[in-house]
Amino acid sequence: MRVGVVFIVFIAFLIGLGLGLGQGIRASGGSSLTNSTSTDGTVVKGLGSDAPKDIAKDVDFELFWRVWNDVKSEYYKQPVSDKDLFYGAIKGMTEAVGDPYTTYFPPEDAKAFEDGMKGEFSGIGAEIGRKKDVLQVIAPLPETPAEKAGVRAGDLILEINGEDSTGMDVVEAVTKIRGEKGTTVKIKFGRMTKDASGADKADTFEVSIVRDTIVVKSARLKELKNGIVQIEISNFNDDAADTFAKLVKEALSKNPKGIIIDLRNNPGGYLDRATYMLGSWLPGQEVVLRRRQGDIIERLKGEGDGALKNVPTVVLINEGSASASEIMAGALQDYGIAKIVGATSFGKGSVQDYIQYEDGSGAKITISEWLTPKGRSITEEGIVPDIAVPLTEEDINAERDPQLDKAVELLTVGGRS
């Protein structure tokens, strides 16, 4: 069963391929295998399915079953679970393509992933992923145990409950970090800071965080000084577009001089929410291009009502702004609709299709990449702000926000000019 949803979420998991492991298997005698009945009367499905027509001739599925049987019979800890081997093999298949965003979720993990996309789950409230082959925090979510414990975007995850996370994939890490409300997880982080001379240095610290039920608010409105309003968008999950539309209506009722769209630490979400919201500035205009194997295969347009077309706008981004956040910032930057302020964004511009299977498992497979309306690539490069404003350790400790201050200044002295 394929769910008709294409999304561009970084995560991890707020954290296989439809071939089936038994397809195309031939017995050692050379005859095609059929469905087999086990000793308890259950039927093993798929053993007689046809192999994909374009499969390489040198792929020998007999070898797969030989290894399966050897692990089942020789591994020193018995019994070995058939389902663990089965799901593990599919997971290995998705990992074999070498893309950190292509992954397979066994049923329990798939449910957790889907619950996370709905905006409610139990854990610490931090999006995590891999960058340059290292686990790191993409963004701590607002008002969550992670944020309250001082976790920041860019923190490296070194250990989870004393276990070295080197080589650990995102799904495994998230599974270990998540847990029942009220329980504790101990995480060792690494953070790059500056010493007294301004040179980079690496600090490590360990934090015990009490898990809680995480309810992610997609957006919120704040009134600032000088007739300026700020809409902070935390994610592009299920309710983001509807919530944003209500906040825009509320903001316009105040007849603001300008609006600040705060996408800092926003790790992404559903593409259609982002394109709909971009229609508040760019109704009917191209806001993102989709490229596959070098060709532009889709041009998506803003679907909103243009309500913010004439409202001076500034967008805030940082290292934790990823995916749909980068699409929004990039489109507004390309059209000259808004000044982009802050730090270069994360750089995640690939497209994942999420597929659900009958057993409750799922696969997230990278199928293409997104470009800004002018054809700029987001992947790895990110969105570079028009005005770079750092947010230092000293600023955070002193509860200063020079990025927000710069946005207010720009709108106060003339908005887009």
Question: What does this entry look like structurally?
Answer:
It is a single chain. By secondary structure, the chain is α+β, with helices and mostly antiparallel strands. Among the domains are: 120-215, Roll (Pdz3 Domain); 219-412, 2-enoyl-CoA Hydratase, Chain A, domain 1 (Alpha-Beta Complex), CATH 3.90.226.10. The protein is built from ten helices and 23 strands. Strands 1, 4, 16, 17, 18, 21 and 22 form a seven-stranded antiparallel β-sheet that branches. α6 links the parallel β14 and β15. α6 (240-252) runs parallel beside α7 and α7 (271-278) packs parallel to α8. It is globular, with a radius of gyration of 24 Å. Mean pLDDT is 84; it is low at 1-34.
Offer a few descriptive terms.
10 helices, disordered N terminus, 417 residues, 2-enoyl-CoA Hydratase, Chain A, domain 1, alpha+beta, 7-stranded antiparallel sheet, globular, single chain, Pdz3 Domain
